[in-house]
Design a protein that fits this description.
Helix content: under 10%
CATH architecture: 6 Propeller
Number of domains: 1
Structural class: mainly beta
Radius of gyration: 16 Å
Shape: globular
Distance between the termini: 37 Å
Number of helices: 0
CATH class: Mainly Beta
Order of helices and strands: EEEEEEEEEEEEEEEEEEE
CATH superfamily: Kelch-type beta propeller
Length: about 300
């Protein structure tokens, strides 16, 4: 069975970015890839672009600097890594930057403070709650001791214009825990009031400039769902919203068009890999499947830029 890993992404600042990028993942033909697909400010996903970083799955990505992005960590052919790849404000991926912090995979990332980012949690190599801050110039800091329950296969996004949230995942058991991130990049202890269904291998993105949404994944019963949970501008996670689109896991999500979001790609048991996308309106409503232009893959990540 190939590696299949969750996703996450977030937005930078209360004035959102206009474009986005999906990157990396697993394909049936090539295994791990570094392929990218740009997302226009109208939510149109472009054809494949050959990647410049180390091919991997299980990475995480977020925005930094107000208009740029970063992909980092993951599982490569050589094992888990901490390398990162910066995304310019034109959507161009740079070559590998030597990793800082403990190598790991199946973690999550989001932006905070309007122009910075944070990687957190994951398998490093055991399940952990370590985090690594990203400066407004894309420099990744060394490990910060974890706060909150250690877990992997979770997702993260921004909310409130300058704060973030990590949510769901597995401690060995699927959970619906969340941890808020302040506008100074400080992760808070577990929130015990999450009302959504516990699940793993989900995705998340920002919408409406100050809200977020978790979507898709695998709940305790092992099914593939398209269930979503909205995140308010104060970081409160809603009860489940019935899914729209094909239920799947290890998809990715990001912002586009300044105040909208998009979920894309992933894997569905007994069916296989997907390249379909689902747009999220600025009111948090998820649309039906849009046929994908890129190569179908799972274990993919996404972030916004420009």
């Amino acid at each position: 069975m190939f590696p299949i890993i969750p996703a996450n992404s977030a937005t930078a600042g209360s004035q959102g970015n206009g474009e986005g990028i999906f990157g990396f993942g697993w394909t049936n033909a090539s295994g791990r890839v570094a392929t990218t697909n740009l997302i226009s400010d109208a939510g149109v996903v472009a054809a494949d672009v050959a990647g410049t970083g180390t091919a991997r799955t299980g990475s995480a990505s977020c925005e930094f600097g107000g208009d740029k992005g970063i992909f980092g960590f993951g599982s490569a052919a050589s094992g888990v890594i901490a390398e990162t790849n910066l995304i310019s404000n034109a959507g161009v991926m740079a070559s590998d930057t030597t990793g800082v912090g403990t190598a790991g995979s199946v973690l999550a990332a989001c932006s905070y403070g309007g122009d910075k980012g944070i990687f957190g949690f994951g398998e490093r190599p055991s399940i952990d709650s370590i985090s690594n801050l990203v400066s407004n110039t894309g420099v990744v800091a060394d490990d910060t001791a974890g706060v909150g329950t250690a877990r992997a296969w979770l997702a993260a996004c921004e909310y409130g214009g300058d704060k973030g949230i990590f949510g769901f995942g597995s401690t060995g058991t699927k959970v619906a825990l969340t941890n808020l991130v302040s506008n100074a990049g400080v992760i808070a202890s577990d929130q015990a009031t999450v009302t959504g269904t516990a699940r793993i291998q989900l995705a998340a993105c920002n919408y409406g400039e100050d809200k977020g949404i978790f979507g898709f994944g695998v709940p305790i019963d092992g099914s593939n769902v398209s269930t979503t949970n909205l995140v308010s501008n104060t970081g409160v996670v809603s009860t489940d919203v019935a899914g729209v689109g094909t239920g799947r896991y290890t998809a990715a999500g990001t912002q586009y068009g300044e105040d909208k979001g998009i979920f894309g790609f992933g894997y569905r048991d007994w069916v296989g890999l997907y390249s379909a996308t689902n747009k999220v309106t600025n009111a948090g409503v998820v649309g039906s499947d849009t046929a994908g232009l890129g190569t179908a893959r799972s274990g993919i990540e996404a972030c916004s830029f420009n």
